[in-house]
């Protein structure tokens, strides 16, 4: 993506890559020193990933566990902080291990600089990871 890519456009492009199960392409949207945080992560799950390599390791097997089909209801809000957006959305699909439905609502605060994600705070529901087949992080927290 060009360095002039608007944060909302970069975010939408990232969603398309996730739906295509192109995890390396999605990771390629990150700055080398990007930070991904999960403020509501349950115990034994990562709360912070520092750097593109850590994010890549975390996401590597995601499609083997969650088969995303769509991101309906995406709402992107511009903030007063340059390069920062707030996103409300749903991810729907299926849990691969159990073939059961996956339906998660998210709120994310995302910062983009020079056409790359630099910060992504992902506010997701930690109760949803108690379902079988959701532990793609290898934490075995349940």
What can you see in these coordinates?
By secondary structure, this protein is of the alpha+beta class. Helices cover 21% and strands 39% of the residues. It has helices spanning 7-19, 23-27, 52-59, 62-65, and strands at residues 30-37, 48-50, 66-70, 75-78, 84-95, 100-113, 116-124. Strands 1, 2, 3, 4, 5, 6 and 7 form a seven-stranded mixed beta sheet that branches.
How are the SSEs ordered, and which strands pair?
Layout: H1 7-19, H2 23-27, E1 30-37, E2 48-50, H3 52-59, H4 62-65, E3 66-70, E4 75-78, E5 84-95, E6 100-113, E7 116-124
Give a brief outline of the structure.
The protein is an alpha+beta fold and 142 residues long. The chain has helices at 7-19, 23-27, 52-59, 62-65; strands at residues 30-37, 48-50, 66-70, 75-78, 84-95, 100-113, 116-124.
The major β-sheet equals: 7 strands, mixed
What is Rg? 14 Å
- Secondary-structure element string: HHEEHHEEEEE
Number of strands: 7
What is the average of the pLDDT values? 90
Structural class: alpha+beta
Poorly predicted parts: none
Question: In DSSP terms, counting alpha (H) and pi (I) runs of 4 or more, how many helices?
Answer: 4
């Amino acid at each position: 993506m060009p360095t002039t890519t608007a944060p909302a456009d970069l975010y939408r492009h990232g969603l398309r890559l996730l739906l295509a199960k192109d995890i390396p392409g999605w990771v390629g949207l990150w700055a080398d020193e990007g930070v991904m945080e999960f403020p509501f992560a349950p115990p034994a799950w990562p709360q912070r990933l520092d750097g593109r390599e850590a994010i890549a390791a975390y996401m590597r097997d995601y499609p083997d566990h969650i088969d995303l089909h769509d991101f309906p209801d995406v709402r992107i809000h511009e903030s007063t902080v340059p390069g920062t957006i707030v996103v409300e959305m749903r991810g729907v699909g299926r849990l691969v291990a159990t073939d059961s439905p996956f339906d998660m609502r998210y709120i994310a605060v995302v910062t983009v600089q020079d056409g790359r994600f630099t910060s992504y705070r992902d506010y997701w529901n930690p109760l949803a990871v108690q379902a079988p087949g959701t532990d793609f992080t290898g934490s075995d927290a349940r």
